[in-house]
């Protein structure tokens, strides 16, 4: 079986219209995903005043992220491959599926897309978007192992449904499977009390208790 050839990229690839379209698709898809996913956390913070984590809220956050990623991947998969994630782009680069130039373009588009989505949320919701931090009493090593497992599950799913040339015609199964694995990863990470909602760096919050993440408006 011939191996994939790693490429830096042709000289004209940096300005080729296909590269520009693919980069724009990654940028817009990332905005869609981050705006809807992070917006669900902010919305829950406005709807409920108590900060306790409940199964219903975990499901709502996971569902919002899964559906948003399904839409983001479905809308960009035929243009850019629907990566919407730097880890997926890195895996595609290691697998020889994209060039270094295209990978750098994708990474910049994904990072800028996430920043723009957070700025839009700040503008529309009037709150700083929340993130995640390690829950109290949980070691960093345990979280590192979890991140490795969750990221492997995502990348393996993407490769099996959207990247592998032997997959055949998958239709909408690929975006759906990718959205579902992300939703499942969120449930396993939060329900396992490994992560809590996190403050934005530089903002001093009240101190959360174990398994009681702060509401986004408290940041």
Automatic annotation (TrEMBL):
> For this UniProt entry, what's an example GO CC term?
vacuolar membrane
Q: Which residues cross the membrane?
A: 27-45, 57-77, 104-123, 144-162, 174-195
Q: How does it sit in the membrane?
A: Multi-pass membrane protein
For this UniProt record, the keywords arranged alphabetically read as follows: Membrane, Repeat, Transmembrane, Transmembrane helix, Transport, Vacuole
Q: Does the keyword Repeat apply?
A: yes
Q: Which GO terms describe its molecular function?
A: water channel activity
State one Pfam family annotation.
Answer: MIP
> Where is this protein found?
Vacuole membrane
Identify its protein family: Belongs to the MIP/aquaporin (TC 1.A.8) family. TIP (TC 1.A.8.10) subfamily.
Name of the protein in its database record: Beta-tonoplast intrinsic protein
Species for this entry: Hibiscus trionum (Flower of an hour)
Q: What is the lineage of its organism?
A: Eukaryota, Viridiplantae, Streptophyta, Embryophyta, Tracheophyta
């Amino acid at each position: 079986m011939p191996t994939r050839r790693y490429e830096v990229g042709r000289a004209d690839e940096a300005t080729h219209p296909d590269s520009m379209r693919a980069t724009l698709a990654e940028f817009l898809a990332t905005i869609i995903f981050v705006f809807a996913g992070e917006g669900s956390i902010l919305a829950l913070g406005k709807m409920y005043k108590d900060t306790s984590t409940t199964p219903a809220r975990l499901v709502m956050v996971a569902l919002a992220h899964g559906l948003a990623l399904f839409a983001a991947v479905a809308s960009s998969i035929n243009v850019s491959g629907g990566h919407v994630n730097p880890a997926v782009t890195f895996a595609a680069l290691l697998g020889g599926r994209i060039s270094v130039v295209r990978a750098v373009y994708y990474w910049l588009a994904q990072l800028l897309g996430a920043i723009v989505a957070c700025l839009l949320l700040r503008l529309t919701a009037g709150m700083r978007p929340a993130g995640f931090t390690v829950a109290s009493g949980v070691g960093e090593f345990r979280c590192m192992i979890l991140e490795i497992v969750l990221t492997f599950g995502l990348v393996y799913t993407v490769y099996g449904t959207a990247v592998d040339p032997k997959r055949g015609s998958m239709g909408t199964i690929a975006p759906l499977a990718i959205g579902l694995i992300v939703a499942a990863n969120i449930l396993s990470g939060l329900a396992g009390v490994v992560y809590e909602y996190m403050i934005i760096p530089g903002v001093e919050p009240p101190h959360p208790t174990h398994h009681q993440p702060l509401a986004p408006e408290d940041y």
